[in-house]
UniProtKB/TrEMBL annotation:
This is DUF3597 domain-containing protein. It comes from the Bacteria. Residues 16-26 have a biased composition (Basic and acidic residues). It comes from Aurantiacibacter sediminis. Residues 3-117 form the DUF3597 domain. Residues 15-38 are annotated as: Disordered. Signal peptide: none annotated. It holds the Pfam family DUF3597.
Length: 122
């Protein structure tokens, strides 16, 4: 699992939690994938504002604070890996790149159906 998936799962729930056991026949059990709640029905702002410590972090504009809020180490190495996942193989950690990285995370969450306020996408 990549850094972006870790961020998304920390906000909206883990993809692995979507498996359920159910009995197909009395003598056997099968594991099926449950229909997860679509990310599109989940509000990013609401989910993050309800996390402990959100009032002390500037997660709306800072990739470092966003990663801290969801419990992911915001080290340079992790941000560099996240940047590579999102298409920047030359990440050096500048302020401009961190702003770009935050916007890319917000855009990808929106692209996957999350409700992201327009102000976080611009």
């Amino acid at each position: 699992m990549g850094i972006f998936s870790s961020i998304k799962n920390a906000i909206f729930g883990d993809d692995d939690d979507k498996k359920v056991e159910h009995e197909a026949k009395p003598a056997s059990k099968t594991v099926e994938t449950a229909r997860p709640r679509p990310v599109s029905t989940m509000d990013l702002e609401e989910a993050l504002d309800n996390k402990p410590g959100s009032d002390k972090l500037n997660w709306r504009t800072s990739i470092v604070d966003l990663m801290k809020l969801v419990g992911i180490d915001p080290s340079y190495e992790n941000r560099k890996e996240l940047a590579a996942e999102l298409g920047d193989n030359y990440y050096s950690g500048t302020a401009e790149e961190n702003i770009w990285l935050h916007r890319q995370v917000m855009a990808k969450i929106a692209a996957e159906g999350g409700k992201v306020p327009r102000s976080l996408l611009d």
